[in-house]
Amino acid sequence: xxxxxxxxxxxxxxxxxxxxxxxxxxxxxxxxxxxxxxxxxxxxxxxxxxxxxxxxxxxxxxxxxxxxxxxxxxxxxxxxxxxxxxxxxxxxxxxxxxxxxxxxxxxxxxxxxxxxxxxxxxxxxxxxxxxxxxxxxxxxxxxxxxxxxxxxxxxxxxxxxxxxxxxxxxxxxxxxxxxxxxxxxxxxxxxxxxxxxxxxxxxxxxxxxxxxxxxxxxxxxxxxxxxxxxxxxxxxxxxxxxxxxxxxxxxxxxxxxxxxxxxxxxxxxxxxxxxxxxxxxxxxxxxxxxxxxxxxxxxxxxxxxxxxxxxxxxxxxxxxxxxxxx
Length: 326
What we know:
Structural class: alpha/beta
């Protein structure tokens, strides 16, 4: 990826590019027929802010998870960001998508409320996520991976193409993309022992009054849950995430070298100025995946999906299709 291509892309998104369709997305899909232990007695009245935290034993490790929406059709499994827990998914986004899908969020092995030890390699993050899905009893799922979770989602899809029907990659990239890798400042802020609200707003939202205000509104929504942030990601776990990320952190190991074999419909999305994973990574990834479509949101950064929870929620629902309607 040379500098002139990066400059051209940046000019395009600054000029107001909102959505770029790279290749058509087929609308046909095979329904999963899960027989899963997820409780149907959800707290529907208040949604994500009071959804019950459940645990599921998988090979002697307790995975913590929550389920929203009616358990019918193909479920949407969410894979989280670097240092992210279940409590950091925006409840407005979750509740909106859950009106049309069963949505399941969870802490992967070694993260926050889940047991075990976080692995140091990307393959194992994907294998652990797949083991959780298998244990739930699903034959096929849709995946949404955010940031680090986007890398895990790609690796899982490459490992288990039979398990994944459709894939959504948000605020993420390929690990290494020439000329578009993490800045020294982003790494320094993201790896501080404790992150303040200001750190979060810098990393996840664009430096404009509107985006920063949206970021503060997002943080306020997260804090509506009574037990929010009762368990955080340990230093040992997030250092394991860094190690896993390094598995795809060179030109030779970049996911760009392998994602051409992904045949599922893929939606790639990002904000137009991502301080964590440069937006050009999303563009490069969408170019490399044969059946991908790219959406870039204006005036936003890494957490554009929480700045535009309903607008992006509509895109997710449309992309996944109508099969889960009651």
